[in-house]
Amino acid sequence: MQTRKFGSLGYDVSALGLGCMRLPRLETTDSSGEVDKEKAIELIQYAVDNGVNYFDSSFTYHNGQSEAVIGEAFDGGRRQKAIIATKQRYPSMQNSKEVMRANLETTLKRLRTDYLDLYLIHNVNINEWEGVKELEVFEEYEKFKAEGMIKAIGFSYHGNLELFKEVINFYDFDMCQFQYNLLMSDRELPNEGLELAYSKGCAVVVMEPLRGGGLASAPKEVLDIYSRCNLERTPAEWGLRYVMDRPEVSVVLSGMSTLEQLKENIATFTAPDAIPYCLTENEKQILANARLTYLNRTSIPCTGCEYCLPCPQGVNIPDIFSKYNEGYRFDKFDNARRTYMFSKTAGTDGSHCVGCGECLAKCPQSIDIIEQVAKAHKVLDGWQES
Asked: CA gyration radius for the chain?
């Protein structure tokens, strides 16, 4: 397994990390999403026994089952081989210092450990950043660190470059975690975010390197592009190599749900050339062509101009079309359906469309919005998880 330095902390970390948000689940009739503990423990133990030493979880993943399964998998000696990072979200899910401490103590019990290697502020974004500061999360984390419950402090991020600059300059973080992949959107950090974190000695952990698993498969047009390189690589390996090429990245975090996925990724990251600057100029051009092909592969010709908004019923039309096109782009709708679940929670999904037609005259692409929203909703609706 290739290893990298972890920012200024000096940890030697496996270039591949196991994200524990998508652990194997039991097949149940009620779609409860309960973790298949036997398979999950086998997966985690195989990972650590084969060179993976970075594990990422959260207080909320699998309703707390994720942390508990990790704790059971590491019990008996493997804990010393692992770097555990887990997360808490503020202030929407924890709005007092008492709850903050109680939940950390619960996390430690679940993980069967006395300390965390890394403790993250989860999902920092424009809506919660001010609340994080008002709750004095940093001061509390410093107390936890002084008491030996945590060793290092970081954050996971979802937002634009402007807020990222403010956050990373606000505190001397040990690490940060954000999305970075071949198909980064305007809502994700550009290379400047990587370079800024690296310049500050902050370790960078990349999540969603395969964009929710979408890049692990590819439509025929993209497969044809990859085949021109005369290298036997899967679409997943192409996507992972795009990220590992960056010298600023310490860990490429992948949410692997099966032993087969884990073994494939371990093989990718144990290759002698699975190192920074691994891509040749020809390979970079192939990836650029693949990216363009993906982006041109859409079903609903929405440009995201938002002229159709606001909808009187609160339907976020461009967001629905973006999610549908994302699923169509990969010939795989799992991740699009999962993210649509959050749109339903927010009340902005297509079920609220009443067909009033107010949006139709506003659309410069002349999209039959009512029909297309109904089509997209039918495909995207129905995702359930724990």
From this structure: 21
Residue (of 196, 279, 207) closest to 54 by Cα position: 207
Is 178 exposed, middle or buried, given 0-12, 13-18 or 19+ CB atoms closer than 10 A?
A: buried
Q: What is the pLDDT of residues 66-90, one digit of tens each?
A: 999 999 999 888 999 999 999 998 8
Separation CA 202–CA 190 (nearest Å): 16
- Cα separation of 150 and 103, whole Å? 13
Q: Which amino acid is at 374?
A: A
Q: Which of 190, 168, 199 is nearest to 8 (CA)?
A: 199
Half-sphere exposure of 222 (CA within 13 A, CB side): 27
Structure confidence by residue, pLDDT tens digits, 96-116: 889 999 999 999 999 999 999
Residue whose C-alpha is closest to residue 177's, from 209, 138, 206: 206
Print burial letters for 309-327: b (CB count within 10 Å at least 16), e (below 16): eebeeebbbbbbbbbbbbb
**H helices present in 172-296, as ranges:** 191-199, 220-227, 235-244, 259-269, 281-296
**195-200 — which CB contacts under 8 Å span 24+ positions?**
195/248, 196/164, 196/165, 196/168, 197/168, 197/248, 198/247, 198/248, 200/168, 200/173
Q: What are residue 160's phi and psi, to 5 degrees?
A: -90, 180
**CA-closest candidate to residue 79, choices 104, 103, 114, 118:** 114
